[in-house]
């Protein structure tokens, strides 16, 4: 294919230990490849196979130990030791860390070599997160298509389906994806961990948690975003529904979800920008003692949102939008599904429909062409009418 061929001299076959020896010889002769008993590595990567996966990373720990023992660390000052760790010891496992979720035993051994000054688990997760983010961003890649066909047919990588005996590679990606999802920024809102005065009070007991802007109540996240008179003035100025302002909520994220459901796709980004500017306005009052009027906060948010929208229209996006593949879905058992369509082109109008059952078996259909150029909406309505007439006749 494409002018390339398989290099049989560099190719190997790895078989299960349960495979009989005569079959080893047969397969080796048939494929013209050598049969091996152990896979030490591939392209510089360990191959963790079996229950003792930590043994596959022994080469990495040995290399790190040899490099660490070859240095006279007593002659290095503190900054020199840090550079030694980051530039040399940490560089040794980086490639493997970007592919595998490394076992805890291997991490503990490497962690002891770097004197626990660097969290290798977080480093491992960060590198795997880059792989997950690339799959989420580039859905036209072969890797995404292969994985989505088996593990997330709905193309939602963060919510895969349950599969019996998944591949070890997918287990790694799924674990990294779940950690990445838990670390999304909006989880700070959902878990109520933004640094409000009430939250700081739970850590430092000598902090007054009364809101610095209105002085009417404790500064919880819900108060800082909705209940404070200053923030409420911004939302009222922006025209947020009165029912959303007066509603009773225990958590800020519940209020935020109700607001999101009430806004359309065009208005919701504006609200996000206002939300961000309200938080900045609060910080300006706390750290710079500058109090903004509601109109100023709203105008800043509106201008920022408009600039962002214009920029996206004028500039080519860094991450191109992935084309959404729409596939036909089978109806339930005992149900007949009718799909119809219409098109207008060159002064002619074409319509058609097809009826299929739950086994995708075609039960009937119709197509027609008229030498008239109808509007697209009327052509679609006519196709719908023909489909309904067919359904009534067969019912």
Protein described:
- With 395 residues, this protein is mostly helical.
- The protein has 4 domains: 38-118, no CATH class; 127-184, no CATH class; 191-314, no CATH class; 337-394.
- It is built from 17 helices and 5 strands.
- Strand 1, helix 1 and strand 2 (34-36) form a beta-alpha-beta unit.
- It is flat.
- The chain starts with 11 loop residues before the first strand and ends with a helix.
Class from helix and strand fractions: mainly alpha
Rg value: 31 Å
Helix content: 40-55%
Number of domains: 4
Q: How many helices? A: 17
Q: How many DSSP-defined strands?
A: 5
Distance between the termini: 52 Å
Given as residue ranges, the uncertain stretches (5+ residues, pLDDT < 50) are none
- Helices and strands, in order, run as EHEHHHHHHHHHHHHHHHEEEH
- Order of adjacent strands in the largest pleated sheet: 3-4-5
Mean pLDDT equals 79
Main sheet makeup: 3 strands, antiparallel
Q: Hey, roughly how much beta strand do the residues contain? A: 5-15%
Bulk shape = flat
Summarize the structure.
The protein is built from 17 helices and five strands. The protein is mainly α.
List the helices and strands and how they pair.
Blueprint: E1 12-14, H1 21-31, E2 34-36, H2 58-69, H3 78-89, H4 94-97, H5 104-113, H6 120-137, H7 142-150, H8 168-182, H9 186-190, H10 197-201, H11 221-227, H12 229-237, H13 242-246, H14 252-262, H15 267-287, H16 294-314, E3 337-345, E4 348-356, E5 362-370, H17 376-394
Parallel strand pairs: 1-2
Antiparallel strand pairs: 3-4, 4-5
Helix pairs in contact: 2-5, 6-8, 11-12, 12-16, 15-16
Protein name: RNase H type-1 domain-containing protein
Organism: Gossypium anomalum
